[in-house]
Every structure is written in C-alpha cells, then in structure tokens.
Amino acid sequence: MRKVHFQPIKSLFLFLLFALIVASCTKKETEEVTASGPPNILFIFSDDHAFQAISAYEDRFSKLAPTPNIDRIADRGMRFDRAYVTNSICAPSRATILTGAHSHVNGLRTNGDIFDGEQITFPKLLRENGYTTALIGKWHLRSKPTGFDHWEILPGQGHYYNPDFISDTDTGAVEGYVTDLITDKSLAWLEANKADGKPFMLMLQHKAPHREWEKGPDHLELYEDVEFPEPFNLFDDYDTRGTAAKEQDMTIRETMQLDSDLKLWTEENRNKGSFNRTYGRMNEEQRAAWDAVYDPIIQEFQEKNLQGEELVRWKYQRYMRDYLATIRSVDDNVGRVLDYLEENGLDENTLIVYTSDQGFYLGEHGWFDKRFMYEESFRTPLLMQWQGKIPEGTVNKDLVSNLDFAQTFLDVAGIEAPDRMQGRSLLPLMTGDTPENWRDYLYYHYYEFPGVHSVNKHEGITGERFKLMHFYELDEWEMYDLQEDPMEMNNIYNHPEYDSIQSSLTDRFKRLKRQYGVIHPKSDY
Ligand code: SGN
Ligand code: CA
C-alpha cells in the first residue's frame, strides 16, 4: 500500500482551502439566519391610485404614461389582479388595513368618523413582537397614530406644495413637493434605524395622486403634448343603472371644476375655492415654473370657448395630464426607495407592498372620484415583492382585499392574528399555493351619504363572475355579469335568464353578512 505524504507546501494550501470553506460556510449560515428571520415590511401606499394608471396592469395608459419603478415590484414579485377594498373611501380603507376588520367592526365608516386608536392593530402587534415601526405621510384618521415608534403625518388631506407635517415632537411647513418630502423623510428614517438590529415595518403613505392632482416641479411639462385615450363609456347615459349612478355628483362634465380641479386660475377667480390650499401655498419660484406651463393653457382655453362634449373631452385630457404626472412623481420616488433597499442589501429580506387606499375613475362612466362598488373604484392596485419567497413575474387572480393585510403581515412575522381580524393571510397565495377553501365572495359596504360626491349608501358582494349590489336606502338592486360586461353597463338584476344565479347570489349575500356580523337596520333582511 502506498503511503501518502503531504508536502509542506501542499498541506499549507489545503489548510488554507479548508479555512476558506469554513469561513464561507459560516458567512453563508449567518446570511441564512438573517434572511430567514422575520422580514422587514415596507408598505408603500398611495391615495386614489387607479390600477388603470399602473403600467404593470397593461391598461390604456401603459405606453403613454408608464410607471417603470412601481412595475419593478411586479417584475420581481407578484401582481394581484383582483385586489379590492371593503369600503372605497380613504379613512375607512386605512382603518380596515390597520385593524384587519370591516368598517362596522372597527367603527370607522366614513371620512367624518374618528379612528379609535385604542383598538388592536397590526403595527401594535408587530411592535410588541420586536419590530421597529414607523408611519410617514398621509394618515387621515383624525386621532393620533398609535402603535408606531415614529410618525410624521400630513394634517388631514395634506398639501402638495410646502406641506405641513405633524410629528410627536414637531409641527410645521416644510419647503418642497409632498411626494419628494415623504420619501426624503422615509429614507432618513430607514437610514437612522438600519443598524438597530430589529426588523422594521414602515408605512410610507403618499398624498398623491389625490384631488386636485397638483403635479410637482419636475413634471410640470411631462404630458403636455400627449393625447390620452378616452374610455368608451366617457359619455355614459346610465341607462339600466339605478338612481345612485344617475344622481351622483362626480362627473367630469358637471362636478369637475375649471379653477380648482383644472387650475385655470385667472385674476377673477383667484382667492376662492381651493386657491389658498393649492397655488396659494407656492413660493415665488414654484409659481413662476407653474405659470410658465399654465398661462398658455389658460389662454388656449379662453380662445377655444368649448361647449358640451368638446368641453368634457378637453377637461378629461387636462385631468389625465395632471393626474398621471402626479403619479410619475410617485413612481420616481418609489424608484429612490427601491434603489436604497438594493444598495443596502435590504431588498433581500423585505416584503415590499405597493397599493392604494382604493381605486379611482379615470373618466369611466364619465366620472372621477371613487366610493361606488363598480370595478374601477372597488378594485385597488396590489403588487408585492419578497425576494426568494414570492416567485418573480407572477400574477394572482384570487379575490383578495385590504382586509387581508393585517393578517398577512402578522403571518409573515410569525405572529398569531387575533380572532377579531376578519381577513385572511395572503402568504400562501404569495407562494403560489392558494388554499382549496380560499374565499369565493367579498363583502362591500359604503356608508358616506349624504356627503361629498353624493353616492348613495350601498352594500354588496362580488364573486369571480357575478356582482350583486343593494342601494338599501333606495331599495334598488343592481347585478352585473363581469365576464360579459366588465365595464358594468348592463344591470341584469331581475333578468329572467339570470334567475337562479340571482337567488344564489342573494343567499350568499345573506350568509356573508351573517359571517361578518353585519347588523344594519335597513340591510338586515
Ligand atoms: C375631498 C375631495 C373629494 C374627495 C374627498 C375624500 N374634494 O373632499 O373629491 O372625494 O376629499 O377623498 S377636494 O376638493 O377637497 O379635493 S379621500 O381620498 O380622502 O377619501
Ligand atoms: Ca383616497
């Protein structure tokens, strides 16, 4: 048998090789420990951002007004095509997200209600379980934020230019454009806390693209030469629909204001309406940049003297140019945050969510605003990225809701959700493993009437194909076949050919209300 002798030089080489392997294993193990610990959660939230205005959704603005940075989240993760809200309006959506409960359970039904900050929320539970939590941007819940180590909020709706911020220690206006400032503050907070050794949960909540759609200094001219496609139902006559659709106050034709909404500020109309909270807040330099773009628009408008449908078309173009330009700023700023995470290796174990408080009408049915249970405002965009957990470039078509966020975030952090929460964790869906018993219907309830935009109270359910709505104070029903009629132009309630579907939907509606504990005098039949 041959004896093997190592030459000294060879042994040294092998020893070094061994040491290198051990060292790299140790490093890998450490990485794995970090990567498998509770993930950071970054919840990027905008206000009134229609899914139609995100290019990842491949809708009518994709080519003309792309959102490449928001799309990065979809490319590296999952796009949810059927994400909805329980009550399509700002404060109620936020309350549902925090509590994981429907409006009738968390007590916040309308923008006029005050959020009870004593109740259990997911940020409180994350914080109790070792997370550092922060909320920066629009809050709109009227009571002080609870459950956050740090918060800096816009008062009420907030302002686009030189906005005020309130924090637990300070209040005052900050010079700049709101979307940039919310991002600056968020990045500063991330940087200051990156070495604390704890996972973070940051709610980064933009004001944009909320009415009055004031674009920022970097995007004033962006879409001025673009003609955007109109939706086919821009001139909807609401035939077959009920009183609510006919009597709302949210049309581009009647409700959209030339001065406050479309910023046609002339010497005569200054100092009225929203002048002081928009143009009135700008400094000299901001006004000069603004006027350079808007003065020619005002002149063009005065010369054209448009009427009727032509005027509606012109207003629609102005609306889209402004609305989509505020979104471009959101998109640029999402890019800044994603870059920061990547540069700091934080993208590796962070669940990144992009969503909005509800959807919005971009001229569909002739409208802007939200509130109705029709698809454009009932749906909300939802994109999620979590490296190594969510497969890249995937699309989910299950019925999901803003009711599900609280339980999802608790689940990814390994924390048990309290029974009071009424949603379901999206974690299995995120890994492509939708449970057999996933929900087949979602419950909706809108309460803010009488109120701005005059949308009657209604509740209803939607399934994969059919939707049932009850305007209970009018006792009017609507039903839609989303497969045959995705734009909901044809109310099929009481159509004999849908008889059996209607009765099974009505039955399902009653059962779902019972399941969620809905007690409402006029809708409890
Ligand atoms: C303001 C807006 C409305 C909007 C509500 C609620 N008018 O009242 O158009 O529907 O907020 O919006 S404005 O002239 O003040 O802009 S929400 O997103 O906060 O629910
Ligand atoms: Ca909103």
Short characterization:
Helices cover 32% and strands 14% of the residues.
List its salient traits.
525 residues, alpha/beta, Alkaline Phosphatase, subunit A, 2 domains, four-stranded antiparallel beta sheet, 13 helices, 32% helix, globular, binds 2-deoxy-6-O-sulfo-2-(sulfoamino)-alpha-D-glucopyranose, binds calcium ion
Please describe what this structure looks like:
It is a single chain. The protein is α/β, with parallel strands linked by helices. It folds into 2 domains: 388 residues, Alkaline Phosphatase, subunit A (3-Layer(aba) Sandwich); 70 residues, no CATH class. Helix content is 32%, strand content 14%. Strand 6 and strand 7 form a beta hairpin. Helix 5 packs parallel to helix 11 and helix 6 packs parallel to helix 9. The termini are far apart. The N terminus is likely disordered. Bound molecules: 2-deoxy-6-O-sulfo-2-(sulfoamino)-alpha-D-glucopyranose (SGN) and calcium ion.
* CATH homologous superfamily caption of the largest domain: Alkaline Phosphatase, subunit A
Structural class: alpha/beta
Which CATH top level class of the largest domain fits?
Alpha Beta
Strand order in the largest sheet: 7-6-5-4-8-1-9-10-2-11
Bound molecules: 2-deoxy-6-O-sulfo-2-(sulfoamino)-alpha-D-glucopyranose, calcium ion
For the sheet with most strands, the description reads: 10 strands, mixed
Q: Could you name the CATH topology of the largest domain? A: Alkaline Phosphatase, subunit A
Shape: globular
Query: What kind of oligomer do you see?
Result: single chain
Percent strand = 5-15%
The DSSP helix count reads 13
> Whole-Å distance between the termini?
93 Å
Helix content, binned percent: 25-40%
Please tally the β strands and state the result: 16
Query: What count of structural domains?
Result: 2
Low-confidence stretches: 1-34
Order of helical and strand elements: HEHEEHHHEEEEHEHHHEHEEEHHEEEEH
Just name the CATH architecture of the largest domain: 3-Layer(aba) Sandwich
Mean pLDDT: 93
